[in-house]
Specification:
Blueprint lengths: L1 H19 L22 H11 L2 H20 L8 H15 L4 E7 L2 E8 L2 H12 L6 E8 L8
Parallel strand pairs: 2-3
Antiparallel strand pairs: 1-2
Length: about 160
């Protein structure tokens, strides 16, 4: 029994000595990653960011956030007493998830939602009101958006 205790104790001491041998790291050892290049983003970078914003994963995330907000709202029985900011945020998320390349703003006041801005197609414009009404607490929707095709980025 004494041999096992001695073996375990020596193992712990050896492990402790090895762990303490690392030197302390300071901010002077950190890489300098705050350099600003001053370059504007390229067309490829912009397109990549836009594709990410309209990807299926992003739409799924937005719809998941909307469902979570609805569940929270159901738990508090507050479907009629929703804050205007929460309501406009949920409608904006719903529209962003389902209308790619739209440039929309959403204002809510006492259950009345006003959606303004631009969308690329008439079909997307027609989808705004039904999508907004899917959010609990939206009483009526005023669509002040217009169809404005997205300008092409080809030279």
């Amino acid at each position: 029994m004494k041999k096992i205790t001695l073996f375990v104790l020596s193992g712990v001491l050896l492990f402790g000595a090895a762990a303490c041998s690392d030197t302390a790291k300071t901010s002077a050892d950190a890489p300098n990653s705050t350099k600003q290049t001053g370059e504007s983003p390229t067309a490829e970078m912009t397109q990549s960011g836009q594709n990410d914003a309209t990807s299926k994963v992003r739409r799924d995330q937005l719809n998941s956030d909307i469902r979570a907000n609805e569940q929270r709202n159901d738990a508090t029985n507050g479907d009629m007493n929703r804050a205007d900011g929460d309501l406009s945020s949920e409608v904006r998320s719903k529209l962003e998830a389902n209308i790619p390349n739209g440039n929309l703003t959403v204002d809510a006041k006492d259950g009345a939602v006003v959606v303004s801005g631009t969308v690329p197609t008439q079909e997307q414009l027609d989808k705004i009101e039904p999508l907004a009404k899917q959010i609990k607490g939206v009483m009526n929707v005023n669509v002040a958006a217009k169809v404005a095709p997205v300008p092409s980025t080809s030279p």
